[in-house]
Amino acid sequence: MTTTETKREEAVPEAETFTAHDVSMANAGSEGSGKGRSAGIAAQGRRAAESAVKVKTLAVGVIMVALVASVGVLGWQLHAKSGDISAMRGAEADRAHAERIALDYAVAAAQMDFKDLPGWQARLTKGTTPELTNKLKQAANSMDQIISPLQWTSTSTPIVAKVRSESDGKFAVDCFVSVMTKNTQAPQGIQSTATYRLTLDKNQNWVISDVGGIDSALAAK
Predict the structure, then answer these.
(1) Could you say which of 12, 48, 154, 182 is the most buried, measured as most Cβ atoms within 10 Å of its Cβ?
(2) Which of the following CATH numbers is that of domain 84-219: 3.30.1490.110, 2.40.10.220, 3.10.450.540, 3.20.20.80?
(3) 115 in helix, strand or coil?
(4) Model pTM greater than 0.90?
């Protein structure tokens, strides 16, 4: 072998040799690295899942609060409407009661008989305040100057009563009564309509505090 060939052989590097142990260690390292990445991914997944659960829980809580608030508002509205309906029904019942009392009074007051003036006066003052009772008695005594000489008699039937106004428990009611009147000037009888205006006080057990139109029953002479 020549000197040149010897140098060329010395210049060629020797191939690296790997043992089975080296390969095993390399594979173990690769597997460890893979397991580490898998563990990291799993941890991230758990954190994401926990965050999702927290967000969902918060959303559910917000929805529940909104539902509770809505139910509360709805309940208040229903209670308010129920109170309004009850108040309306109570007001309607009061008006109907005032109209019934007023019309009954008007029908009774329009019935006259010159033979029984005390009975008419009793009907005229029934259910009235003491002050009004005195006024009505004075009015009845004055009307006696017409009723007795003309031998006045009258019968009455109800037509209608209507509340005109209401304030602080005081009801002003207009009453209309059909009256059949007979006297010496009209023995065959005359049909007319008498109008009474009454004021009733609910706060004093529906007492009648004012009456107008008593003389309207004498209009048909």
Answers:
(1) 154
(2) 3.10.450.540
(3) coil
(4) no
